[in-house]
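An example makes the point: we print one protein in full, the chain in one-letter code, the fold tokenised, without further comment:
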Amino acid sequence: MSLWPAPWSQLQRSLFDEPQPPQPEPPPVPVSAAVPGAPREALAGEVFKHPRAQRDVRLDGHLVAYEMRRARRSSIGFVVGPEGLTVSVPRWVGLKEVDSALQEKRGWILRKLREQRERAQRLQSARIDWRDGTGLPFLGDTVILLLDARATGAVLDAGAADGLPGVPRRLLRVGLPHTATPEQIRDVVQSWLQRQARRIFEERVALFALRLDVRVRRLALSSAATRWGSANADGSIRLNWRLVHFGLQIIDYVVAHELAHLREMNHSPAFWEVVRSVLPDYEHSRLALRDGQVPLL
């Protein structure tokens, strides 16, 4: 069994399940001609533009430039992905019907476009700038990277007791000169993070295995893009090392979740009761994990 973070898949909706007779189709409308006679700078509202857009439309005052594809299908399909809106149109459907379909689904389209934009912004903000002085999330706190050629590997300094609230108090001394490349810094820090992850996971797995009365035969680190952890009926556990960016409460939730599968290999009510037996308020950690952002290393 496995624990999955929030899905990043594309979303699709369809219209016009009943065929309509063929209609003559006017030539494509250029993206710049969405509102004849009105300069684009004067248009109010948000702008969403697909990089391969051939047409655009005004939806509730917002400009949506979209990619349109003719396809062998029986209905109009809308896909909102990282690049924007793509509309797949049956060969027999005219552009007026496409415009009507867009207006009918404008609320859904705008909502999904905003979600994709917000996700892209979160991903961008999560990128690590590998240099001296960069902040890095570790166990729910922030550590500051300090290039120090005198250090060996990476060494975490103890936190100052009188630090200001919200101000990082811990330094991670990275044994590299200030001339080190971002790739060199990333490799040293990532290796340190993985070592810390194994040490912490081994401690927490041992603790919760005792509480749940289960036997773990093997613990392995994972770097999967879509799973936080997995468990096998033979007692093998895999945990994503990137969990080390989160606080201990969230790590404990994933550990307890996977170990609970050694008693209930499902997500039945009985399974969740096993999790609750060791983490009575696990819902809070589950929600925080779902909404949390892992830095892009």
Q: What stands out?
A: Residues 11 and 79 are 6 Å apart (CA to CA). The helical segments are 95-104, 106-125, 182-212, 248-260, 269-278, 282-291. The first helix runs from residue 95 to 104. The chain has a mean pLDDT of 84.
